[in-house]
Design goal:
Number of strands: 10
Shape: globular
CATH superfamily: Aldolase class I
Number of helices: 12
CATH topology: TIM Barrel
Strand order of the largest sheet: 1-4-5-6-7-8-9-10
Order of helices and strands: HHHEEEHEHEHEHEHEHEHEHH
Distance between the termini: 40 Å
CATH class: Alpha Beta
CATH architecture: Alpha-Beta Barrel
Radius of gyration: 17 Å
Strand content: 15-25%
Length: 265
């Protein structure tokens, strides 16, 4: 099955999961819990820092295409290792069925560090926005391919009300146009083609000229070497989201340290 087909299944399950959780914990209750969350840490600002390589380091246990990556590492341990190695921010998968994540992983990882953390999930409902804030997220991911224009606009508005920043992910020029029209301020280009599953860094490079100059620009997927980072950085990207390369290493923190050293060399 293509990634596009997998995305449809994941979104369908995400909507069902929201309905189930609303029954257990009503919307107004999750909003009240969110109001007691720790103060938000700046996410977009740390991705813009000049003179350094800004990596959003990801905690991901498995994926539909890769299967199990690592299930033996605690989120707080990986988060601490990433912080010591020089990560700019954390990305923590919270989808359970397809990625083996939990909201508790987000709370634990962020709580063990001083880094801002993004909830990496398939957000399709306002409930998940407040759920993320209640779990201490500083930002959420919105995937244009999973949302209608109306949904994207509504969720961006909801995130603002919840005091969350948003990384809006695109895969092609049409999705980028939609993200820009919706007012996205942090735009991530995923280098994975949802139809062929091919990963090409050229996707980021091709779309870069069309991203507004004042937007934070993030390259995602397929980044494995310091040379990859240098190429993307020199082109104009502000930050780099890296997950599988780090999580599949014997020690994710050591892998990040080595990658940053190579990128800065």
């Amino acid at each position: 099955m293509s990634d596009a087909g997998v995305l449809g299944k994941i979104v369908e399950r995400a909507r069902a999961g929201v309905a189930e959780r609303r029954e257990m914990l009503p919307f107004e209750v999750i909003q009240a819990v969110a109001d007691e969350a720790p103060p938000r840490r700046p996410f977009g600002d740390v991705l813009r820092r000049a003179g350094r390589v800004n990596v959003i380091s990801e905690y991901k246990r498995r994926s539909p295409s890769r299967g199990v990556i690592r299930e033996d590492l605690a989120p707080q341990d990986v988060a601490v290792a990433y912080e010591k190695a020089g990560a700019a921010a954390l990305s923590i998968l919270t989808d359970t069925e397809f990625f083996g994540g939990q909201l508790d992983h987000l709370t634990a990882g962020r709580g063990a560090t001083r880094l801002p953390a993004i909830r990496k999930d398939f957000v399709v409902d306002a409930y998940q926005v407040w759920e993320a804030r209640a779990a201490a997220a500083d930002a959420i991911l919105l995937i244009v391919a999973a949302l209608s224009d109306a949904e994207l606009a509504a969720l961006l508005k909801e995130a603002k009300e919840a005091a969350l920043e948003v990384l809006v992910e695109v895969h092609d020029a049409a999705e980028l146009d939609r993200a820009v029209a919706a007012g996205a301020g942090i735009i991530g280009v995923n280098n994975r083609n949802l139809k062929t599953m091919e990963v090409r860094l050229e996707t980021s490079l091709d779309l870069l000229p069309k991203i507004p100059k004042d937007a934070v620009k993030v390259a995602e997927s397929g980044i494995k070497t310091g040379a990859d980072i240098r190429k993307l950085r020199q082109a104009g990207f502000d930050a780099f989201l890296i997950g599988e390369h780090l999580m599949s290493a014997p020690d994710p923190g050591v892998a990040l340290q080595a990658l940053l050293a190579e990128a800065e060399g």
